Amino acid sequence: MNAVRRRAASTVAALALTAAATLAATGTAEAAVGPSVCGAGYNVVETVSIGSVGKLYLTWNASTGKNCAVTIRNTPGPAVWMEVWVTRLDTGAGDVDNGYYTQYAGPVYINGRGTCIAFGGTIGDVSVTRGPGHCG
After folding, report:
1. What is the reported pTM?
2. Is the pLDDT score of 90 beyond 80?
């Protein structure tokens, strides 16, 4: 299943260009995350630093009731171990993406309406966990 999630180089490049264009237009990384990586309608609800190497973003789409999480490196480079996960606290159901990536892991999605979630991310040997997180 991890192979299904693995993005082709052209897709990553296109998303990176979209994020860079949004970042240039808005001046904030948070504004770039939702529209370019998670999809339309997602707004950043929490940002967590992963040491000095990147950030973990949690977004929410109020119309669909879904949370989206993504781990993004501050500076793309050689592939390193990266992970992002999100879990419903009421059922334990969740989604995860991990592997050796050059820029980001994810996005991962969970229906978060009516429950709180936990989420986390890893870049290299630095990990963060948050939860209970956003409650939909």
Report:
1. 0.75
2. yes
